[in-house]
Design goal:
Blueprint (H helix, E strand, L loop, with lengths): L3 H26 L6 H4 L6 E7 L17 H4 L5 E4 L6 E5 L10 E7 L11 H47 L4
Parallel strand pairs: 1-4
Antiparallel strand pairs: 2-3, 3-4
Length: 172
């Protein structure tokens, strides 16, 4: 058994690779369009979609049931929500905690679902199915990150202003 430390290392390595890919992609795009997050050296929020072959969509395990450490090793050990009636789609979030660089949601799709008529492949069906979800959620994520970044900059500026006022000791 490899243990929790191995899972954490694997998760961190995978996350680092994904963040590096996002950063390089955004740097390339920023050559043509001004991008707030890239210009401020931040990784923009994102939604990552994974197509997985799951034989079961049950995440609540019995006390004596063996558990795979795979989900933990890729940062998907705690599902945030089951976002479909049939259990084929799950949403994972790591939240925005101080130690995390990236703010992303991970969506898994069970590849055992049947392709619906009108789609040439399961992949195109997945892309189309996640489009509306992404169009609704991504702007909220961007505005949240923008508000957090802006509030931090305001707090720093406010501290500098008050510090300079204290040093000058103005007489009103």
């Amino acid at each position: 058994m490899k243990g929790l430390a191995h899972d954490i290392v694997k998760n961190q390595m995978l996350e680092d690779l994904i963040i590096e890919l996002k950063w390089r992609s955004m740097k390339e795009i920023s050559k043509y369009f001004p991008l707030y997050f890239t210009n401020n050296k931040q990784i923009p929020p994102s939604i990552e979609v994974y197509k997985l072959k799951q034989t079961s969509c049950v995440f609540k395990k019995a006390d004596n049931e063996k558990t795979s450490s795979f989900w933990n090793s890729v940062g998907m050990d705690n599902p945030f929500s089951d976002i479909s009636k049939d259990g084929y789609w799950q949403l994972f979030t790591e939240g925005r905690e101080p130690e995390l660089i990236d703010n992303s949601f991970k969506v898994t799709c069970n590849s055992t679902i049947n392709r619906e008529r009108g789609y040439d492949s399961l992949d195109s069906q997945i892309v189309y199915s996640t489009k509306e979800f992404s169009n609704l959620l991504l702007p909220i994520m961007v505005m949240r990150e923008y508000a957090i970044d802006t509030s931090q900059k305001i707090a720093v500026r406010q501290n500098k202003t008050f510090s300079s006022i204290k040093r000058e000791k103005p007489r009103y």
